[in-house]
């Protein structure tokens, strides 16, 4: 039971979150002017933004991945840049480089497209490892070094990387250690038939509404701070740890049959990101405390790229999603 002090505390947190999260509905409805359907993707973008994480989106071409992040940057009053990853891209094309200025007889710094609030890394698996590392270092450190100077990147800073699951020719798959840097990996599916009908109509008319900046960067910064204050009970923390530990030691959770299917489990970064994403989800739902449903809502996006599967699992057509489903269904909900 909560004592009276804690309950008063939760009431005040709830009130604050209700106030700070008022912009979520405004932002979502502004994005809906252009993005039809794809509610799951829009929600995950907001979780990445509020949780100060980055998102890896996987889906076939033409599912509005680029459009979604561009629309978000317009609605948030932020700067947007798009980097099209290709096999001949160099790290300097992403972070920037030193250029010799003949007039001044000196070097000046030309900043790369990474210097924006919202960066779309299109088809990240098309670029070689050197370029991927340059981007991922910027994502992790939130800073870039060009020559001898270090630049702090703009806040908020959200990288949305996309990869096409269909094409394997001329691609460089992201190593597990780099994929782990992404807070969420979201798989985008085709829109519903009714939504697609609306998309066809809007495109044929050419009548997309203009997206207005409805949220300031200061509001986002305040919301990012407020997310940290969302209350998470010890029981929820234990629930998160049980899910993560079950990916590492399934035999301890009556899931011995999963042992030969898992090559490696989620790292501590998985636990941190699952807790953060659950808090962000509660914030989006305008609640000042986390419930088990929040954890279940984000668990697939946080863990699907953090659970490695063995050849045996591949032979049996078992995916990391199936493994997560079995774990979530087995672990006792607080």
From TrEMBL:
GO terms for molecular function: ATP binding; ATP hydrolysis activity. InterPro entries: ATPase_AAA-3, CbbQ/NirQ/NorQ/GpvN, ChlI/MoxR_AAA_lid, P-loop_NTPase. Keywords: ATP-binding, Nucleotide-binding. Residues 54-184 form the ATPase AAA-3 domain. Residues 259-327 form the ChlI/MoxR AAA lid domain. The keyword Phosphoprotein does not apply. It holds the Pfam family AAA_3. Belongs to the MoxR family. PANTHER family: MAGNESIUM-CHELATASE SUBUNIT CHLD (PTHR42759:SF1), MOXR FAMILY PROTEIN (PTHR42759). This is MoxR-like ATPase.
